């Protein structure tokens, strides 16, 4: 039995929608963020989780365009 939409978390929806290539890139970038190694384009360390996710998705899109 499926759960109603009001009960489904955003994370589970994201996992279903995201392509495998993007998942891999997001996992890599979030690992860098967790280890405090992720830097923004200006060279400063990223301390905001939402900014890290934005960087990951941006890099995944850039990779897709090159292919």
How does this model look, in words?
The structure is a single chain. The protein contains three helices and no strands. The chain is an all-alpha fold. It has one domain. Helix 2 packs across helix 3. The N and C termini lie far apart (39 Å). The mean pLDDT is 79.
Fold topology:
Blueprint (H helix, E strand, L loop, with lengths): L9 H8 L2 H15 L14 H18 L1
Helix pairs in contact: 2-3
- What's the order of the H and E elements? HHH
- Give start-end ranges of low-pLDDT stretches: none
Average pLDDT, rounded to a whole number, is 79
Any idea what the shape is? globular
Residue fraction in strands: under 5%
Whole-number total of structural domains: 1
Q: Report on the biggest sheet.
A: none
The assigned structural class equals mainly alpha
Gap between N and C termini, in Å?
39 Å
Number of helices: 3
In total, the number of strands is 0
Provide the helix percentage. Answer: 55-70%
Rg, rounded, reads 14 Å
């Amino acid at each position: 039995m499926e759960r109603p939409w009001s009960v489904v978390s955003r994370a589970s929806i994201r996992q279903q929608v995201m392509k495998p290539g993007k998942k891999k890139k997001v996992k890599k970038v979030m690992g860098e963020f967790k280890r405090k190694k992720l830097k923004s384009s200006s060279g400063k360390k990223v301390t905001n989780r939402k900014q890290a996710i934005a960087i990951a998705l941006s890099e995944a899109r850039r990779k897709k365009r090159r292919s």
